[in-house]
Write a structure and sequence with these properties.
Blueprint lengths: L9 H14 L2 H13 L4 E4 L1 H7 L8 E4 L3 H8 L5 E3 L7 E6 L2 E7 L1 E5 L6 E5 L3 H6 L9 E3 L5 E2 L4 H7 L1 E2 L5 H7 L2 H13 L2 E2 L1 H10 L8 H12 L4 H11 L2 H4 L2 H4 L13 H13 L8 H9 L4 H4 L1 E2 L5 E2 L3 H15 L4 H13 L13 H11 L3 H10 L6 H25 L10 H8 L5 H17 L4 H14 L5 H15 L20 H11 L3
Parallel strand pairs: 2-5, 10-11
Antiparallel strand pairs: 1-2, 1-8, 3-4, 4-5, 6-7, 8-9, 12-13
């Protein structure tokens, strides 16, 4: 939270914040500053840690800057530090650890991108003020010299913090030309801090949005993830769309701004998606959940490609969850997200209509089992996404959906206690399948296992003997067993399984999906609050 202007002057705020910043690391920082001074070099705390201290926000980073070249930095700290590393030395950065405190020391520098290169050119400087001038925003261009604790703020960063404004130390065009990623970083800070981006900075972002293409996908991904996991992601995403940056890094997002159809029967999908994101965030319990937030933001990106104008002025988006899942996978892959994130987000997008697919009546036990099976380890997130996807302003409809989903979660909990839903599997394993059918390992065992899994989903726990009888009957129907043997086993199965069904009337397993037509599901979702 930003420092309040009321009864707190910038000067008093600065003194308090710097003292607080240095309290935990003062012995190490001051000793290191004295070490550099004795060697004839400057050292200062800089950037994010100073900003966060002034905002009273915790910061896990300790970033320092010096006029010493990286090789000289190594000479100074080698015998003093408990450990050191040189992973970033090509960019002038040396890392070290002392008394449990980890620090990074970077030589004064400037960097810029060649118009045709994704790799920055780095050159070293000799002045702290010039080093601060090359930083992205004035709020990050403040420093505290060591060991004397002199506060250095040549570009008015402290004033900007009080005003909650993002400005660049120099011309924004020069800053963004040096590193185009700073445009995305402006949106990220708008999301994390709730700051307003200065008008001249916004204009430069609009004019130079295409320059973001020169930045590697990995760097874009990292900034985008921080933006989405910020406290105010709507503000950051809106800035991406407004400036045209989204068209380059997440083009599916501005595409959601569909025109409201001529009959005004459908709301804007872009606004709906932002509301779903906010409602998903409201359900988080252990901090930001990147997978849930990405799924909430992207859950309807298949709608522009599937939009159809129907007779009577209706608008339909049949199969948009399937199309959207494929689009999500493609976009997240292009952004170099890890495979587990890609798989989980895409699966949630694919499943986000599943709840509506079962209709409005009471769910059968079979339907509940399939819902749990399909969601797998994503069940908790699917619960949150489904609830978040209700954005209707009709209180009666919203209450009905909430009650229906409350009932579903209770049903899942009850069946979980009775049947171990988290690990739904047939009552007969692969080895037993081979023994019962007299077959060897191979694809046929997999087919039989799949049949038994469908049986388990449809009828619950029916007992091993009844399951074996059903397996033999299936095998006979597939031409794998004599009909006579199958008929005999079927009679046994009817006797042993009659009293052990789960309440679905003993219906045989169906190869049809539990979810009703996608068209019906999409229509219900539209009517009940999903965009």
């Amino acid at each position: 939270m930003a420092v309040s202007n009321q009864n707190v002057t910038p000067e008093s705020s600065r003194r308090i914040a710097i003292a607080e910043l240095l309290r935990g690391i003062a012995p190490v920082a001051d000793d290191l500053g004295a070490l550099f001074a004795a060697a004839g070099h400057e050292l200062a705390l800089v950037g994010g840690p100073v900003r966060d201290a002034l905002l009273r926000r915790p910061s896990k980073d300790v970033d320092l800057t010096t006029d010493a070249p990286p090789e000289r930095t190594l000479e100074i700290i080698r015998d003093w530090a408990d450990a050191h590393w040189t992973i970033g030395i090509e960019f002038g950065t040396v890392g070290l650890r002392k008394n449990g405190v980890e620090l990074e020391i970077t030589t004064y520098r400037s960097e810029s991108y060649d118009p045709k290169s994704r790799k920055p050119d780095v050159s070293y400087g000799t002045s702290l003020v010039e080093d601060l001038r090359r930083r992205d925003f004035a709020v990050n261009a403040m420093a505290a010299r060591l060991p004397g604790h002199e506060f250095v703020d040549p570009f008015g960063g402290l004033t900007d913090l009080h005003r909650k404004v993002l400005r660049t130390p120099g011309k924004p065009e020069d800053s963004f030309n040096d590193d185009p990623l700073r445009m995305l970083r402006a949106a990220r800070f708008a999301s994390q801090l709730g700051f307003t981006v200065a008008p001249d900075v916004v204009r430069a972002m609009k004019d130079m949005a295409g320059r973001i293409e020169i930045v590697s996908a990995e760097r874009v991904r990292d900034e985008l993830s921080k933006l989405i996991c910020g406290r105010y992601p709507r503000e950051g995403l809106a800035l991406l769309v407004e400036t045209g940056l989204a068209a380059h890094v997440l083009p599916e997002l501005p595409m959601l701004r569909l025109e409201i159809d001529e009959h005004h029967r459908h709301k804007d999908v872009y606004e709906h998606s932002l509301i779903v994101l906010e409602q998903a965030i409201a359900q988080e319990q252990d901090g930001p959940d990147l997978v849930l937030r990405l799924a909430a933001l992207l859950h309807d990106i298949g709608k522009p490609k599937t939009r159809r104008f129907e007779p009577g002025g209706r608008v339909s988006f049949h199969h948009h969850e399937v199309v959207g899942a494929k689009m999500t996978r493609k976009r997240l892959t292009a952004l170099r997200y890890p495979k587990d994130v890609i798989n989980e987000v895409s699966r949630l997008v694919e499943l986000h209509l599943r709840f509506h697919g079962y209709g409005t009546g009471e769910w059968t036990d079979s339907a509940v089992r399939r819902y749990v099976r399909d969601a797998g380890p994503l069940l908790s997130r699917l619960h949150k996404l489904t609830r978040a996807d209700c954005t209707t302003r009709n209180k009666r409809k919203a209450d009905r959906l909430r009650r229906t989903y409350d009932d579903l979660e209770q049903r899942i909990d009850r069946l979980a206690e009775e049947e171990e839903l988290a690990a739904i599997r047939p009552e007969i394993d692969g080895n037993e399948i081979q023994d019962i059918l007299g077959i060897k390992p191979g694809p046929l065992v997999g087919r039989a296992y799949k049949f038994l899994l469908e049986l388990r989903l449809d009828r619950g726990i029916i007992g091993r003997d009844a399951a074996a009888a059903e397996l033999r009957r299936w095998a006979a129907a597939e031409g794998l067993l004599p009909d006579a043997a199958a008929d005999e086993d079927a009679k046994d199965g009817e006797t042993s399984g009659a009293d052990e069904t789960s309440g679905d009337g003993g219906a045989p397993p169906s190869s049809e999906p539990a979810v009703k037509g996608d068209e019906d599901a999409a229509a219900r979702a539209d009517e009940e609050g999903g965009a």
